Amino acid sequence: MGGGQQMETTWEGTGIFEWPLPGDFSITSPFGYRTDPITGEVSFHDGVDIAAPEGTAILAAADGVVVTTNRTDSWGGSYGYYVKIRHDETYETLYAHCSEVLVKAGQEVEQGDVIALVGSTGNSTGNHLHFEVREGGSKVDAMGFFQKKSLTKDASCFKV
């Protein structure tokens, strides 16, 4: 999991994607340079790591087609078990370190479908979702597609 940073994760999508986990969990490593928790070296982190209990449902962030999965090699080139989804000609998302992959390449998915379960396979120090967004083939900061949820109170619960 990441370089020790933690942020509140009460997030909602800004139009393209919805949050890929069913609830609020800690971001343990954001996109960008960090001290790698395995090697101890400073390196660029291509996604956002979100800590969650093993077996937590991972949700498709948007409608799309599963491009590729790794369901058999728990190392998976450091990603472990993973799912990659193409959403349109511009966007792809990747969901890594899964304990189990529930979809197959070529399968159509809808936003919110359960596609995998959180785990700690591959190059990982604990249960989490490594979530990447690729725009036009380039990895971009996934958090740019989310905003903090506004917490509003129902005015009817207050007595005047």
UniProtKB/TrEMBL annotation:
Domain of life of the organism encoding this protein: Bacteria
Annotated transmembrane regions = none
What sequence ranges are listed for the domain M23ase beta-sheet core? 44-141
What SUPFAM superfamilies would the database entry show?
Duplicated hybrid motif (SSF51261)
Entry's Gene Ontology molecular function annotations: metalloendopeptidase activity
What InterPro entries is this protein classified in?
Cell_wall_metabolism_enzyme (IPR050570), Dup_hybrid_motif (IPR011055), M23ase_b-sheet_dom (IPR016047)
Q: Which PANTHER family match?
A: MUREIN HYDROLASE ACTIVATOR ENVC (PTHR21666:SF270), PEPTIDASE-RELATED (PTHR21666)
The protein's name in its UniProt record: M23 family metallopeptidase
Q: What is the lineage of its organism?
A: Bacteria, Bacillati, Bacillota, Clostridia, Lachnospirales
